[in-house]
Amino acid sequence: MDRANQRDVGVAAGKQRGLSQSGLEGDGWRNQLQALIDAHAGVRVNGNVASFRTRQLVATELFSVFNTLRESLGFKLQSPHNLSEKHIQALVNHWHRKDRAVSSMRLSLSVLRKFSGWIGKRGMVKSLPVYLPGVDPKDLRTSAIAERSRSWSENGVNVEAKIAEADALDEKLGLMLRIAVVFGLRRQELVMLKPWKADRGNALAIYPNSGPKGGRPRLIPISSELQRATLDFVKERTLKTHHLGWYVTRRGKAASLEYNCAEYLRWLRRLGISRRMSGVTGHGLRAEYAENEALLQGLVPATLGGEADQMPKDEISRVQGQVSESLGHSRLAVTNSYYGSFTRRRSVKKPAAPLPGVESGVPRSIEPQAADPRRHALTPAERRREARRQRKVRRDAARGFSDQLSLPLNGKVVSLGGKVNIRRANY
């Protein structure tokens, strides 16, 4: 991000961080844009209150757009109200020349579409294909449905080994990764979680003021020994009134929520967790949790080879609904972005006989595996093929025996007792 954008994003989040905006005096268009953001960004299209993350995203996009128009494209707009269709066309052409991702361009247009309503020009911003008539419309489509698993395990990342590495780097990071893999929390929920307060005995409570998207509270059922043992382990290492995040920055100052979220990402990159380095992100642990929760209830996700006819439609909807609620959503379709859509998996060959059902615990092994020295030399396509090959090996092995599941809870691998049969029926 260039210096101008950094300054503007800082202005947009100034109220939250207690920053002064006095440095903007004399910079008319910036003050006007900030006033529009303050007046409108806090309300969603449906009238509900927008989250801090949404307001920050809108502010970041808008300041970036106007900086690009003024500094890169030469449009000396004196007021944000002067934005017109020619400016939108110039922006899209500029993004396309820079090979910007389709999803990113669509996001920016969505923000501009909302902004055009603020300045009385509703309907000015069109869809992306209108601005790029020379591009095949198929190349401008995006889908929220997962075509392949986004979990760490299915992409060749050893969860247990990464948690052990995290423990060696920073104790708080190790605790947060444990919670992430067995409860599926978002990044902001992780750093704000107060384990002692959240423990409701048979459920983990996510309160409205503890970071959920849109302030939506939820109860995540504690249904396995691994979840119970993990939460107890984290509580033993956290003061009763403390959250899991960092209280002090690396420079010894009080750490803000913004700092905590950024610090979490910095530590993940130290672990080698990023889309570029390993093909997965921290959000992949939510996909891991979603897949595991579905497997525990007898539903093989589409990303793991499951078919639409593996159980009655209403039963699939019931499982998807429970998983969606645990993730902090209400719509069943949300689960498609975590473990795919069954309508796209009708041609998968079934095995000769179904496998035993899940008895307890987490439905797949996270035992340490030997690292592949070729891992970081593979292209994304080669990594996916290798992950599919390894998945097939694990499935074949599961047909013959059950795996003992464990997590590094006490600085070493601690068995949680009992055998677990991996559910791989009807796929």
Quickly describe the structure.
Helix content is 46%, strand content 3%. It is mostly helical. A two-stranded antiparallel sheet has the order 1-2.
- Helix/strand-derived category reads mainly alpha
Overall 3D shape: globular
Roughly what is the average pLDDT, rounded to an integer? 77
Write down how many β-strands occur, each being a DSSP E stretch of 2 or more residues: 4
Order of helices and strands: HHHHHHHHHHHEEHHHHHHHEE
Q: If you had to describe this structure to a student in words, what would you say it looks like?
A:
This protein is mainly alpha-helical and 427 residues long. The protein is 46% helix and 3% strand. The strands form two sheets. Strands 1-2 form a two-stranded antiparallel sheet. A two-stranded antiparallel sheet has the order 3-4. Helix 1 runs antiparallel to helix 4 (52-72), helix 8 (159-169) runs antiparallel to helix 9 (171-183) and helix 9 (171-183) crosses helix 15. Mean pLDDT is 77; it is low at 9-26, 345-363, 365-376, 397-406 and 409-427.
Which secondary structure elements does this structure contain, and how are they paired or packed?
Layout: H1 3-12, H2 14-17, H3 28-40, H4 52-72, H5 85-97, H6 102-118, H7 128-131, H8 159-169, H9 171-183, H10 187-192, H11 195-198, E1 203-206, E2 218-221, H12 225-236, H13 257-270, H14 275-278, H15 284-296, H16 313-327, H17 336-339, H18 380-398, E3 406-408, E4 413-415
Antiparallel strand pairs: 1-2, 3-4
Helix pairs in contact: 1-4, 3-4, 4-6, 8-9, 9-12, 9-15, 15-16
Which short descriptors sum up this protein?
427 residues, mainly alpha, two-stranded antiparallel ribbon, two-stranded antiparallel sheet, 18 helices, globular, disordered C terminus
